[in-house]
């Protein structure tokens, strides 16, 4: 049955950075599909508002943890707290991420280290913490948010592109580690989605330039990430592993 293929009743998901943007829309579809969901970010007011918006504050459906994932010592604490809510994590969506544009000859070590820690190192650490129980249960879904800037580049995006390309390597190798345990590992590479992240970095002219590079001629709406993540999280996507799904309005179709 169509509904059963996408049904997540009895599953528990952790969506990092689930307070807004793409993370919030991914948390919403996972709740709609029947999963219990834990979201986290650094801003408690936004987390609380997201829980209210997604499920009218129903704590049997969605709860939050305040956590700064740029600090590696917080990662194991988050994993433990997240498992504490509903007893397990079956679906891990490593979505929290940030950007810090600097051309190569201006990259500051502290910015490189901070973005790499948040966008790559702590994704590995959170996955490492949650994988043993998935292996034991012989069911798991790991979904990392990469970017079209992990598949190609852009001026001034050396730190971000390096972190997002690193996620792809982590995806391939981890899929092979975990395949024998029925745990799938995939990345999603979004193109331009109009969330706070690009809004904080791009002026109106630059925003127009981004939409012009898509085949569809527009920015993605954050809720257009929902279908792809549900596919990868559910039994409908049970034979998809070790790959990167571009959700980019056709950006990567263009070579010139
Ligand atoms: P967003 O609207 O800025 O949301 C980012 C989320 O991550 C927020 O919940 C944010 O909450 C959280 N976050 C940021 N730093 C954090 C930290 N140190 N600790 C814990 N949580 C943190 O961004 P988005 O556009 O939805 O991006 C989501 C993911 O998609 C990112 O990995 C991004 O690189 C990727 N992506 C986005 C686009 C796009 O066009 N939007 C394109 C390609 C890839 P707080 O800041 O309150 O902590």
Explain what you see.
With about 260 residues, the protein is α/β, with parallel strands linked by helices. The protein is about 45% helix and about 15% strand. Strand 1, helix 2 and strand 2 form a beta-alpha-beta unit. The longest helix has 29 residues. The protein starts with a helix and ends in a 9-residue tail after the last strand. Bound molecules: NADP nicotinamide-adenine-dinucleotide phosphate. The site of NADP nicotinamide-adenine-dinucleotide phosphate (NAP) has 28 residues, from helix 2 and helix 8.
Could you name the key traits of this structure?
single chain; 256 residues; alpha/beta; Rossmann fold; 10 helices; 7 strands; 47% helix; 15% strand; globular; binds NADP nicotinamide-adenine-dinucleotide phosphate
């Amino acid at each position: 049955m169509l509904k059963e293929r996408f049904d997540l009743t009895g599953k528990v998901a952790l969506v990092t950075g689930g307070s807004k943007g793409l993370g919030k829309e991914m948390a919403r579809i996972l709740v709609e599909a029947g999963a219990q969901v834990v979201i986290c970010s650094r801003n408690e007011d936004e987390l609380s508002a997201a829980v209210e918006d997604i499920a009218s504050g129903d704590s049997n459906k969605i709860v939050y943890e305040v956590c700064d994932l740029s600090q590696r010592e917080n990662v194991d604490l988050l994993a433990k707290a997240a498992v504490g809510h509903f007893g397990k994590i079956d679906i891990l969506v490593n979505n929290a991420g940030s950007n810090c544009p600097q051309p190569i000859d201006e990259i500051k070590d502290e910015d490189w280290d901070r973005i790499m820690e948040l966008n790559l190192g702590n994704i590995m650490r959170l996955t490492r913490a949650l994988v043993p129980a998935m292996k034991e249960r012989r069911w798991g879904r790991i979904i990392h948010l990469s970017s079209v800037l992990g598949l190609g580049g852009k001026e001034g995006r050396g730190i971000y592109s390096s972190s997002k390309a690193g996620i792809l390597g982590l995806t391939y190798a981890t899929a092979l580690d975990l395949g024998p345990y029925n745990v799938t590992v995939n990345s999603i590479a979004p193109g331009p989605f109009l969330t706070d992240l690009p809004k904080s970095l791009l002026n109106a002219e630059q925003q127009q330039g981004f939409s012009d590079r898509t085949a569809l001629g527009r920015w993605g709406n954050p809720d257009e990430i929902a279908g792809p993540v549900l596919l990868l999280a559910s039994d409908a996507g049970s034979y998809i592993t070790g790959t990167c799904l571009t959700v980019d309005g056709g950006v990567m179709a263009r070579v010139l």
